[in-house]
Write a structure and sequence with these properties.
11 helices; globular; binds ligand C2E; binds magnesium ion
Length: about 290
């Protein structure tokens, strides 16, 4: 009857709220657990770096490598950065983790340089939280001094999220970084807060076209035109263009004919450990 179905609906609603509360509680507990695991991970050095090569389209030579963090957790197994970087940002731990990444990447790169002495670029991702940290420039100087890396071979990858607030402060900071002779790359370009007027004011050396545009290259006319526009925009700003996430030869051909400078993607190589980087350098001529 109508009465019992109403009763059932109420009962169901109550149960749903119970489920919802249980889910929320579980999610919160999981997050707290991961937070404590993340702090331990930092203390116990459970992180390591992989490097994904970037190639120059003009002669297929190696442009350099992007350092990408990995977390080998005894509790969770291997955790992708997508699943812990934002938590590290929320807790502020990204400042310490980011410093570890920068130091480790520069150390490992320096060892490769001593062995191979090649004209390569090391790209390191930095979070907006790190850049807004008052000590950031000091941290970079410290890493440069400790590792003896040539600053002109170091490139910091930043994202547009940096410019959401306090544009002037951010530009000042970036100019300070630039004065150390380090390159600045704008990562995931096209996905964030993009205003063309702010681009002109940024000391950008490299523009990375986000994978989402590259994904669409094979079949969508609009994306093809947009990628072409991004490439000319970048060249007008005197920036190198790196396309990321290239998985097939259709995308590659398109990027080559449209004067994209550099390419990075699974079609050429996945992120790899230092041993494999050494092998790759051994087997390729220098540019
Ligand atoms: P990102 O900086 O845009 O790095 C490129 C990501 O795309 C990497 O994922 C790389 O493995 C992946 N990728 C490259 N080529 C291809 C392809 O052809 N196909 C597919 N499917 N994927 C491709 P990863 O290593 O999982 O990193 C994800 C994101 O995590 C990075 O995106 C970056 O935003 C962040 N991240 C990684 N390492 C660090 C770090 O040391 N510090 C900070 N702050 N963020 C980091
Ligand atoms: Mg990046
Ligand atoms: Mg990117
Ligand atoms: Mg990306």
């Amino acid at each position: 009857s109508a009465d019992t179905s109403m009763y059932k609906a109420k009962e169901l609603g109550r149960n749903n709220i119970q489920f919802f509360k249980k889910d929320m509680k579980e999610a919160i507990l999981n997050k707290i657990e991961m937070e404590s695991q993340l702090f331990k991970a930092y203390e116990n050095e459970e992180f390591f770096l992989e490097y994904q090569p970037q190639f120059n389209t003009i002669d297929d030579s190696i442009r350099g490598f992007e350092a990408l963090i990995r977390w080998n957790s005894p509790h969770y197994g291997c955790v992708a950065p997508m699943n812990f970087i934002s938590l590290a940002e929320e807790t502020g731990l990204i400042i310490n983790i980011g410093e570890w990444v920068l130091l480790t990447a520069c150390r490992e790169f320096n060892e490769l340089q001593q062995r191979f002495n090649r004209n390569l670029c090391l790209s390191v991702n930095v979070s907006a939280i790190q850049i807004r940290d008052k000590n950031f420039v000091g941290i970079i100087k410290n890493v440069l001094a400790k590792t003896n890396i040539n600053p002109q071979q170091l490139e910091l990858e930043i994202t547009e999220s940096l410019f959401i607030d306090n544009m002037d402060e951010t530009i000042k900071m970036l100019n300070e970084i630039k004065s150390l002779d380090i390159r600045i790359s704008l990562d995931d370009f096209g996905t964030g807060f993009s205003s063309l007027s702010y681009l002109r004011r940024l000391p950008i050396d490299t523009l990375k076209i986000d994978k989402s545009f590259i994904d669409d290259l094979s079949d969508k006319d609009v994306s093809i035109r947009i990628v072409g526009d991004i490439i000319s925009l970048g060249h007008n700003l005197d920036a190198d263009i790196v396309a990321e996430g290239i998985e097939n030869s259709t995308q590659l051909e398109y990027l080559k004919t449209n004067n994209c400078d550099c390419i990075q993607g699974f079609l050429f190589a996945k992120p790899m450990g230092v041993k494999d980087v050494e092998k790759l350098l051994q087997n390729t001529p220098s540019n």
